[in-house]
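Hi everyone,

Forwarding the result from last night's run.
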Amino acid sequence: MITPENCSTIIWRDREHVDEVANALRLTAQDLKSFQVIDEIVAEPDGGAHADYAGAAKLLDQAITHTLNEIRGCTAEEQVQKRYEKFRAIGSAPETAAQDWQRKKAG
């Protein structure tokens, strides 16, 4: 695995193509969600989390609280089963990066 920054540096000898590389490597938040690696994408406050720590913390608190409320009613056995199913499903996205590339190349 390589970071988008390092990949951009190797290919173009600069870091100006990081976004392009991240999209090609399918490392965006949307890609990770489609591969079921992550459950949710937490929005950032206007201007980004680095510009509004309190706003970012509030949005993160809301997301964590929502998730905890969802699992609060589950037994330990149900939580273990859901976790097992989640990890078994990771990467089982309907279209792989290779299939996506072939489709774009053909079309």
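The radius of gyration is 18 Å.

Cheers,
N.
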